[in-house]
Amino acid sequence: MNIKIIIVALLLLPASFCLAQDKFEISGQLSQAGKDMMVMLSYKNSEGKDTKDSALVKNGKFLISGTTAFGNKAYLTLMPVKKDTIRRVGQSDYQEFYLEKGMYKVTGTDSLAKASITGAQAQKDFLLWKSKSQALLAQFREITQRFTKVYYAKVKDTVTIKKIQAEARPVHAKIEAALDSFIFSHPDSYVALDLIASEKTAVIDPQVFGAYYNPLSKRVLASFTGQKLTAKFEKAKKISIGKTVDFTQTDDKGNEFKLSSLKGKYVLVDFWASWCVPCRAENPHLLKAYNQLKDKGFEIVGISLDETKAAWLNAVKHDGMPWIQVSDLKGFKSEIAVQYGISAIPQNFLIDPQGVIIAKNLRGEDVNEQLAKLIR
């Protein structure tokens, strides 16, 4: 054999093992699906890329096979082979499930949404979570629909709004309790991992988040979602209490501003945007605190996650914010937001005169009192 061929083969061999090649097979029976129908599978392939595959339904049966990696949420949709212009998106007949290596079975009649999907361990975990949460989530959705209707009415009924909010609180508390119970009892589950990623990462407090992250197994943390979660956690640690921070950004006058230029002062670094209603609602409280404490070595630096300068500056003017304002107008892709893993606002942190973070996410009507207790 040619030595060059052997060398090339040896060099290429490791590459073929870089990615998991987890084979799956989905066999389905939809006995009354009708003619000219197909099943579309939307899933992540072995490289973690969103992929689609399909199979015709013949004599009420279909078969789809392929490769994936780890366990990820996937979707099966039943649709006509020819585009049906009468059907609307809201009428899509689909069901979500968890796909990983192994054999899957779909059993139903004329609907995929109502079919049974059984398979590997991740799907078993998903069905267990659904059984524990489905009723509570349906109840909360119904409350949310009523709240939205009243809240956005031309004439707001504040009494009814408060009544619905009070009704929602215990239901929400039950959902959170069920969520935590499932997560903590399934540290080796791709479903628990996804629930943490989707429900527990909007604002990460490293001291609290560690209780969710640390028990997770190496197996699930090695997944695509697990790697993203780890990266997000590491970024959040950069702005945990006790950390020293500094950054450079362009201010509203086009000048370069460096956070460390305020060394010697207490500084509240506030992430906000003109389009963020909760952020704008906090501004009057921050203004009150600023006016009361600015002569005691206190400053605020607003970091706008806007993408248009006009919207940013108009909001600054409208809300009467006299403190330092900076932005690179890249939204959530802002260099500072990316650096510190900011994916939800409002968020803020308070640094002491040495540039060390001493408190986080101070807000509300009594924010001035909260700050006054910290500023010495």
Can you describe this structure?
- It is a single chain.
- The protein is α+β, with helices and mostly antiparallel strands and 376 residues long.
- The chain has 3 domains: 21-119, Immunoglobulin-like (Sandwich), CATH 2.60.40; 124-237, no CATH class; 248-374, Glutaredoxin (3-Layer(aba) Sandwich).
- It has helices at 3-12, 121-151, 158-185, 190-199, 206-213, 218-221, 224-237, 277-293, 309-319, 335-340, 367-374; strands at 22-30, 37-44, 50-56, 61-68, 72-80, 93-99, 102-108, 116-118, 248-250, 256-258, 266-272, 298-304, 324-326, 347-351, 357-360.
- The strands form 4 sheets. Strands 13-12-11-14-15 form a 5-stranded mixed beta sheet, with helices on one face. Strands 4-1-7-8 form a 4-stranded mixed beta sheet, with no helix packed on it. Strands 3-2-5-6 form a 4-stranded antiparallel beta sheet.
- Strand 11, helix 8 and strand 12 form a beta-alpha-beta unit.
- The protein is elongated, with a radius of gyration of 26 Å.
Helices and strands, with pairings:
Layout: H1 3-12, E1 22-30, E2 37-44, E3 50-56, E4 61-68, E5 72-80, E6 93-99, E7 102-108, E8 116-118, H2 121-151, H3 158-185, H4 190-199, H5 206-213, H6 218-221, H7 224-237, E9 248-250, E10 256-258, E11 266-272, H8 277-293, E12 298-304, H9 309-319, E13 324-326, H10 335-340, E14 347-351, E15 357-360, H11 367-374
Parallel strand pairs: 1-7, 11-12, 12-13
Antiparallel strand pairs: 1-4, 2-3, 2-5, 5-6, 7-8, 9-10, 11-14, 14-15
Helix pairs in contact: 2-3, 3-4, 8-11
GO molecular function: antioxidant activity; oxidoreductase activity
Pfam families: AhpC-TSA, DUF4369
Organism: Pedobacter heparinus (strain ATCC 13125 / DSM 2366 / CIP 104194 / JCM 7457 / NBRC 12017 / NCIMB 9290 / NRRL B-14731 / HIM 762-3)
